[in-house]
Amino acid sequence: MKFTGTGVAVITPFNNDKSINFSALQKIIENLITNGINYLVVLGTTSEAATMSYDEKNEVVNFIKKINNNRLPIVLGMGGNNTNELIETIKTTNFSGIDAILSVAPYYNKPNQRGIYQHYKKISENSPVPIILYNVPGRTSSRISADTCLQLANNFNNIVAIKEASADFNEIMKIIKNKPPDFQVISGDDALTLPLISIGMEGVISVIANAFPKKMSEMVNLALSNKIDKARTIHYQILEIINLIFAEGNPAGIKNLLHQMDICDDVLRLPLTEISNELSVKIEKELKIIDDNFI
Protein backbone atom coordinates (compact mmCIF):
# COMPACT_ATOMS: atom_id res chain seq x y z
CA MET A 1 0.00 0.00 0.00
CA LYS A 2 2.58 2.52 -1.15
CA PHE A 3 0.08 5.26 -1.88
CA THR A 4 -1.54 5.74 1.51
CA GLY A 5 -1.17 9.23 2.97
CA THR A 6 -0.10 12.35 1.12
CA GLY A 7 1.28 12.41 -2.38
CA VAL A 8 2.17 15.72 -4.00
CA ALA A 9 1.50 16.76 -7.59
CA VAL A 10 4.86 18.49 -7.99
CA ILE A 11 4.98 21.80 -9.86
CA THR A 12 7.67 22.60 -12.42
CA PRO A 13 9.29 25.95 -11.56
CA PHE A 14 10.36 28.08 -14.52
CA ASN A 15 12.86 30.92 -14.87
CA ASN A 16 11.75 34.24 -16.33
CA ASP A 17 12.84 33.03 -19.77
CA LYS A 18 10.47 30.03 -19.35
CA SER A 19 13.31 27.52 -19.01
CA ILE A 20 13.11 24.98 -16.18
CA ASN A 21 14.52 26.22 -12.89
CA PHE A 22 16.24 23.10 -11.58
CA SER A 23 17.62 24.88 -8.54
CA ALA A 24 14.10 25.78 -7.39
CA LEU A 25 12.90 22.28 -8.25
CA GLN A 26 15.56 20.77 -5.97
CA LYS A 27 14.46 23.13 -3.19
CA ILE A 28 10.85 22.05 -3.63
CA ILE A 29 11.64 18.32 -3.64
CA GLU A 30 13.83 18.55 -0.54
CA ASN A 31 11.15 20.55 1.25
CA LEU A 32 8.53 17.91 0.45
CA ILE A 33 10.69 14.98 1.50
CA THR A 34 11.73 16.52 4.81
CA ASN A 35 8.19 17.53 5.78
CA GLY A 36 6.39 14.22 5.92
CA ILE A 37 5.17 13.64 2.37
CA ASN A 38 4.62 9.96 1.48
CA TYR A 39 5.23 10.00 -2.29
CA LEU A 40 5.91 12.30 -5.24
CA VAL A 41 3.78 12.63 -8.37
CA VAL A 42 5.84 13.84 -11.33
CA LEU A 43 4.58 15.17 -14.69
CA GLY A 44 0.97 15.43 -13.60
CA THR A 45 -1.34 18.25 -14.63
CA THR A 46 0.13 20.56 -11.99
CA SER A 47 3.60 20.15 -13.51
CA GLU A 48 2.51 21.80 -16.80
CA ALA A 49 3.73 18.68 -18.58
CA ALA A 50 1.42 19.52 -21.48
CA THR A 51 3.71 22.46 -22.33
CA MET A 52 6.98 20.55 -21.98
CA SER A 53 8.97 18.84 -24.72
CA TYR A 54 9.88 15.16 -24.65
CA ASP A 55 13.46 16.01 -23.68
CA GLU A 56 12.34 18.38 -20.94
CA LYS A 57 10.07 15.75 -19.44
CA ASN A 58 12.95 13.28 -19.33
CA GLU A 59 15.21 15.90 -17.76
CA VAL A 60 12.67 16.64 -15.03
CA VAL A 61 12.02 12.98 -14.24
CA ASN A 62 15.72 12.09 -14.14
CA PHE A 63 16.52 15.14 -12.00
CA ILE A 64 13.80 14.33 -9.46
CA LYS A 65 14.88 10.68 -9.32
CA LYS A 66 18.43 11.82 -8.60
CA ILE A 67 17.40 14.27 -5.87
CA ASN A 68 14.94 11.83 -4.34
CA ASN A 69 17.59 9.07 -4.25
CA ASN A 70 14.98 6.38 -3.53
CA ARG A 71 13.77 8.13 -0.36
CA LEU A 72 10.12 8.25 -1.47
CA PRO A 73 8.07 6.40 -4.07
CA ILE A 74 7.67 8.25 -7.37
CA VAL A 75 4.50 8.18 -9.48
CA LEU A 76 4.88 9.25 -13.11
CA GLY A 77 2.04 11.02 -14.91
CA MET A 78 1.49 9.21 -18.19
CA GLY A 79 -1.82 9.50 -20.03
CA GLY A 80 -3.30 10.52 -23.33
CA ASN A 81 -6.18 10.29 -25.75
CA ASN A 82 -4.29 8.23 -28.34
CA THR A 83 -4.07 4.75 -26.85
CA ASN A 84 -1.58 3.34 -29.36
CA GLU A 85 0.76 6.31 -29.00
CA LEU A 86 0.60 6.03 -25.21
CA ILE A 87 1.49 2.33 -25.37
CA GLU A 88 4.52 3.12 -27.53
CA THR A 89 5.59 5.75 -25.00
CA ILE A 90 5.28 3.21 -22.18
CA LYS A 91 7.38 0.72 -24.14
CA THR A 92 10.21 3.23 -24.61
CA THR A 93 10.18 4.70 -21.08
CA ASN A 94 12.88 3.92 -18.53
CA PHE A 95 10.93 2.95 -15.42
CA SER A 96 13.97 2.63 -13.18
CA GLY A 97 13.12 4.50 -9.97
CA ILE A 98 9.43 4.78 -10.90
CA ASP A 99 6.95 3.02 -8.63
CA ALA A 100 3.71 3.56 -10.55
CA ILE A 101 2.09 5.58 -13.30
CA LEU A 102 -0.85 7.95 -12.89
CA SER A 103 -2.91 7.73 -16.05
CA VAL A 104 -5.65 10.27 -16.67
CA ALA A 105 -8.83 9.23 -18.44
CA PRO A 106 -8.55 9.82 -22.20
CA TYR A 107 -9.61 13.40 -22.86
CA TYR A 108 -11.19 15.48 -25.63
CA ASN A 109 -12.48 12.62 -27.83
CA LYS A 110 -14.96 11.63 -25.05
CA PRO A 111 -14.93 7.82 -25.28
CA ASN A 112 -17.77 5.77 -23.82
CA GLN A 113 -17.21 3.44 -20.87
CA ARG A 114 -16.36 0.51 -23.15
CA GLY A 115 -13.63 2.61 -24.78
CA ILE A 116 -12.29 3.72 -21.41
CA TYR A 117 -12.14 0.12 -20.21
CA GLN A 118 -10.29 -1.01 -23.35
CA HIS A 119 -7.89 1.95 -23.06
CA TYR A 120 -6.84 0.97 -19.54
CA LYS A 121 -6.79 -2.73 -20.49
CA LYS A 122 -4.11 -1.90 -23.06
CA ILE A 123 -2.15 0.11 -20.51
CA SER A 124 -2.38 -2.75 -18.02
CA GLU A 125 -1.09 -5.23 -20.58
CA ASN A 126 1.95 -3.08 -21.34
CA SER A 127 2.91 -1.28 -18.12
CA PRO A 128 5.84 -2.75 -16.14
CA VAL A 129 4.74 -0.83 -13.02
CA PRO A 130 1.41 -0.48 -11.16
CA ILE A 131 -1.25 1.87 -12.54
CA ILE A 132 -3.29 4.53 -10.74
CA LEU A 133 -6.40 5.57 -12.66
CA TYR A 134 -7.18 9.28 -12.70
CA ASN A 135 -10.79 10.43 -12.90
CA VAL A 136 -11.04 14.20 -13.40
CA PRO A 137 -14.03 14.91 -15.66
CA GLY A 138 -13.78 18.65 -15.06
CA ARG A 139 -10.59 18.63 -17.15
CA THR A 140 -11.12 15.72 -19.52
CA SER A 141 -14.85 15.69 -20.35
CA SER A 142 -14.38 11.97 -19.80
CA ARG A 143 -15.70 10.23 -16.68
CA ILE A 144 -14.54 6.85 -15.38
CA SER A 145 -17.76 5.47 -13.92
CA ALA A 146 -17.73 3.56 -10.65
CA ASP A 147 -18.73 0.40 -12.52
CA THR A 148 -15.85 0.76 -14.98
CA CYS A 149 -13.40 1.47 -12.16
CA LEU A 150 -14.54 -1.62 -10.26
CA GLN A 151 -14.36 -3.77 -13.37
CA LEU A 152 -10.78 -2.63 -14.01
CA ALA A 153 -9.82 -3.06 -10.34
CA ASN A 154 -11.12 -6.63 -10.30
CA ASN A 155 -9.80 -7.72 -13.69
CA PHE A 156 -6.23 -6.36 -13.62
CA ASN A 157 -3.92 -6.89 -10.66
CA ASN A 158 -1.58 -4.06 -11.70
CA ILE A 159 -4.38 -1.47 -11.61
CA VAL A 160 -3.95 -0.67 -7.94
CA ALA A 161 -5.71 2.64 -7.23
CA ILE A 162 -7.78 5.53 -8.52
CA LYS A 163 -7.23 9.23 -7.98
CA GLU A 164 -10.80 10.54 -7.73
CA ALA A 165 -11.35 14.21 -8.57
CA SER A 166 -14.97 14.03 -9.70
CA ALA A 167 -16.47 15.26 -6.39
CA ASP A 168 -19.27 12.74 -7.02
CA PHE A 169 -19.71 11.27 -3.53
CA ASN A 170 -22.25 8.66 -4.63
CA GLU A 171 -19.93 7.22 -7.27
CA ILE A 172 -16.94 7.43 -4.92
CA MET A 173 -18.78 5.60 -2.15
CA LYS A 174 -19.83 2.90 -4.62
CA ILE A 175 -16.15 2.32 -5.46
CA ILE A 176 -15.08 2.30 -1.80
CA LYS A 177 -17.87 -0.09 -0.80
CA ASN A 178 -17.28 -2.62 -3.59
CA LYS A 179 -13.57 -2.42 -4.41
CA PRO A 180 -11.06 -5.27 -3.87
CA PRO A 181 -9.39 -5.02 -0.44
CA ASP A 182 -6.00 -3.97 -1.81
CA PHE A 183 -7.33 -1.37 -4.27
CA GLN A 184 -6.80 2.20 -3.05
CA VAL A 185 -9.05 5.22 -3.51
CA ILE A 186 -7.16 8.54 -3.36
CA SER A 187 -8.55 12.05 -3.20
CA GLY A 188 -7.72 14.36 -6.09
CA ASP A 189 -9.34 17.36 -4.39
CA ASP A 190 -7.52 19.15 -1.57
CA ALA A 191 -10.64 20.84 -0.21
CA LEU A 192 -12.58 17.56 0.01
CA THR A 193 -9.79 15.38 1.37
CA LEU A 194 -10.96 15.34 4.98
CA PRO A 195 -14.59 14.38 4.25
CA LEU A 196 -13.43 11.87 1.64
CA ILE A 197 -11.11 10.17 4.12
CA SER A 198 -14.03 9.99 6.54
CA ILE A 199 -15.92 7.81 4.04
CA GLY A 200 -12.99 5.52 3.31
CA MET A 201 -10.39 7.17 1.10
CA GLU A 202 -6.75 6.48 1.93
CA GLY A 203 -5.14 9.85 1.31
CA VAL A 204 -4.66 12.55 -1.30
CA ILE A 205 -2.57 13.58 -4.26
CA SER A 206 -2.30 17.21 -3.26
CA VAL A 207 -1.54 20.54 -4.89
CA ILE A 208 -1.57 22.72 -1.76
CA ALA A 209 1.08 20.44 -0.21
CA ASN A 210 3.61 22.03 -2.57
CA ALA A 211 3.34 24.98 -0.18
CA PHE A 212 2.28 23.31 3.09
CA PRO A 213 3.62 19.74 3.02
CA LYS A 214 3.90 19.41 6.80
CA LYS A 215 0.40 20.68 7.55
CA MET A 216 -1.29 18.72 4.76
CA SER A 217 0.43 15.47 5.65
CA GLU A 218 -0.35 16.06 9.34
CA MET A 219 -4.03 16.58 8.55
CA VAL A 220 -4.16 13.44 6.42
CA ASN A 221 -2.38 11.33 9.02
CA LEU A 222 -4.71 12.56 11.77
CA ALA A 223 -7.75 11.79 9.63
CA LEU A 224 -6.46 8.32 8.77
CA SER A 225 -5.97 7.72 12.52
CA ASN A 226 -9.61 8.75 13.16
CA LYS A 227 -8.50 11.88 15.02
CA ILE A 228 -11.08 13.88 13.13
CA ASP A 229 -11.35 16.81 15.53
CA LYS A 230 -7.64 17.60 15.25
CA ALA A 231 -7.67 17.03 11.49
CA ARG A 232 -10.66 19.35 11.17
CA THR A 233 -8.72 22.19 12.81
CA ILE A 234 -6.02 22.04 10.13
CA HIS A 235 -8.61 21.53 7.39
CA TYR A 236 -10.28 24.83 8.22
CA GLN A 237 -6.97 26.63 8.66
CA ILE A 238 -6.04 25.94 5.04
CA LEU A 239 -9.44 25.62 3.36
CA GLU A 240 -9.70 29.26 2.26
CA ILE A 241 -6.26 29.35 0.69
CA ILE A 242 -6.99 26.05 -1.07
CA ASN A 243 -10.08 27.60 -2.62
CA LEU A 244 -8.10 30.71 -3.59
CA ILE A 245 -5.30 28.87 -5.38
CA PHE A 246 -7.84 27.14 -7.63
CA ALA A 247 -9.98 30.22 -8.27
CA GLU A 248 -8.25 31.09 -11.57
CA GLY A 249 -6.90 27.68 -12.45
CA ASN A 250 -4.14 25.27 -11.49
CA PRO A 251 -1.13 25.62 -11.31
CA ALA A 252 -1.39 29.41 -11.65
CA GLY A 253 -2.65 29.82 -8.09
CA ILE A 254 -0.16 27.52 -6.40
CA LYS A 255 2.73 29.13 -8.28
CA ASN A 256 1.66 32.56 -7.07
CA LEU A 257 1.51 31.26 -3.51
CA LEU A 258 4.94 29.63 -3.80
CA HIS A 259 6.32 32.89 -5.19
CA GLN A 260 4.95 34.78 -2.19
CA MET A 261 6.67 32.20 0.02
CA ASP A 262 10.00 32.79 -1.82
CA ILE A 263 10.10 29.21 -3.10
CA CYS A 264 10.00 29.85 -6.86
CA ASP A 265 9.17 32.48 -9.47
CA ASP A 266 5.59 33.11 -10.54
CA VAL A 267 6.14 32.02 -14.14
CA LEU A 268 3.92 29.82 -16.33
CA ARG A 269 3.99 28.75 -19.95
CA LEU A 270 1.28 29.68 -22.42
CA PRO A 271 -1.57 29.07 -22.76
CA LEU A 272 -1.51 29.46 -18.96
CA THR A 273 -0.96 32.93 -17.53
CA GLU A 274 -0.39 34.37 -14.07
CA ILE A 275 -3.39 35.04 -11.83
CA SER A 276 -4.93 38.50 -11.47
CA ASN A 277 -3.54 41.08 -9.08
CA GLU A 278 -6.83 40.99 -7.18
CA LEU A 279 -6.54 37.27 -6.49
CA SER A 280 -2.86 37.60 -5.64
CA VAL A 281 -3.73 40.14 -2.95
CA LYS A 282 -6.33 37.78 -1.50
CA ILE A 283 -3.76 34.98 -1.37
CA GLU A 284 -1.27 37.31 0.30
CA LYS A 285 -3.80 38.23 2.99
CA GLU A 286 -4.75 34.61 3.61
CA LEU A 287 -1.10 33.57 3.76
CA LYS A 288 -0.56 36.16 6.50
CA ILE A 289 -3.48 34.72 8.47
CA ILE A 290 -2.06 31.22 8.10
CA ASP A 291 1.41 32.36 9.17
CA ASP A 292 -0.08 33.96 12.27
CA ASN A 293 -2.07 30.85 13.23
CA PHE A 294 0.17 27.93 12.28
CA ILE A 295 2.27 26.64 15.16
By secondary-structure content and strand pairing, the structural class works out as alpha/beta
* Low-pLDDT stretches: none
- Which sheet architecture does the biggest sheet show? 8 strands, parallel
Euclidean distance between termini CA atoms: 31 Å
What would CATH call the homologous superfamily? Aldolase class I
Please state how the strands of the largest beta sheet are arranged side by side. 7-6-5-4-3-2-1-8
Task: Output the CATH topology.
Answer: TIM Barrel
Strand content: 5-15%
Strand elements, count: 8
Number of domains: 1
Q: Oligomeric state of the chains?
A: single chain
The arrangement of helices and strands along the chain is EHEHEHEHEHHEHEHEHHHH
What CATH architecture label applies?
Alpha-Beta Barrel
According to CATH, what is the class? Answer: Alpha Beta
Q: Report mean pLDDT, rounded to a whole number.
A: 96
Shape: globular
Fraction of helical residues? 40-55%
The radius of gyration over CA amounts to 18 Å
Number of helices, counting only DSSP H or I runs of 4 residues or more: 12
